[in-house]
What does this fold into?
Amino acid sequence: MFDAGKKMRDQFNLAEFRDKVLGCWTGKNIGGTLGAPMEGSRPLHDVSFYTQDLGGNPAPNDDLDLQLVWLQAVEQHGAYRLNERILGEYWMRYITGPWNEYGTAKGNMVAGLYPPLSGFCNNDQWKNSNGAWIRSEIWACLFPGTPDEAARFAWLDACVDHAGEGIYAEIFTASLESAAFVESDPETLIGMALARIPADCRVARSVNLVLDGYHRGIDWRTVRRNLVEDSADLGWFQAPANLGFAVLGLLYGENDFGRSVCLAVNCGDDTDCTGATVGAVLGILKGRSGLPGEWIAPIGNTIRTVAISTYYLFVPETLEELTERVIRNKQLIERENPALPRLADGPTRIGDELRRRLGDGEWARQNICTRSSRAVGYDLPWGRLTLEYGSSPVTAPGEAQRLRLSVDGCPHSNRLVCFRWKLPEGWCVSPGTEQMLQVKQDAVSTLAVEITPGDFPGAMVYVQLEVRLSDRLAPWWLAVPFELRGTVEQEHQIVSETFRDEEGRRTLRYE
It folds into this structure.
């Protein structure tokens, strides 16, 4: 018997959801293929359709590749058992692309600088770049209509190889794409995503610059020039300007799929990324059934990879196969978190409370965007230890810095966590080599120490930290990494491809 007082659970019609997810991946392939020939070319373009002979296949694109790795991580661990360290290990195992932040992250992890330190250290040139926000669709499709959940996983993802603006950019796109399963107006979606990142960050500044120009009736070419000038200090291939190009395509495209992806690509710079993201967003909004057939036919439904190792990675052969795997994992995630909207055979039904939460980004701003890229976590049998560097593990002799040690998730009360530091000769710790921290169940306990490095016998020093719970005999040993500043360099030099500079001159790319 129907109970009128019982709250109806939010749900998506399964067939409609399948169409939207397939549309997402199809739009991703379309936009990435359209922009691939112009990638890195910085002047304005004037494309209106594919410029290459495709033969029924899309161009391979790392924007989609990396998401296949995350999908397998979800399948093998479950979404809510993932953390940034697990994603980092999948990165080391499966991601072969050596470019820029991808290679820097690997080098850092090899040295023991695990996520999020892998995206923060030795990465000034690329920490704010495009590698993270271009791979956000997997989280949106697994967490449709719940942008806060998508933002949570976007942070875990982005911190592997980015920090700062690079992370904010993926929180923005994951939130927007998740909300797009419920809301259909692009400008409203942009506002929902903006609500989840810091108002004063550079990504928000670029997005607001486009919004302002659009509302004032300024032509898109002028807005694009304003974006380039505003981000000139950051350099090329950076998230604020390129995400601005994607937003420009969504707004000025006026819901026309072909015009929207072409506008994003015609802005130049990281054209495969901007086109792919615009295509994915519109694919969610329109569904595969609503995408123009003339854009689908030249590339078909296959998946081609370029930046991942397929050895032991279960790569789907088609977009349909990828979509079905996403659906299966979405249904498993509903068991992990029954509060999420479910997939059902009945009609889509979204309640007022979920719709209200779409526009309220305070939780994500306060709990996701405030997470530190200088804090590395360690899972212990009786809780989680987080060690946050005051400035950076990249340091020099004599540079004292405070380290904050926090313990949470402990199932016991009135225990002491005992810390004992074993320091290299010439190093010192204040207030001493031993500390004790009282912990309580379901509480966060914190203490601070100050480490002053002495000489470095090599590029890296791993300070030994013994951690023991007061009623346990066996200790846990951690290696706390420090890197001597100036001893590690990332040289990014690509000479096998040619690009055009702002004046249209052909040039080799050296980074």
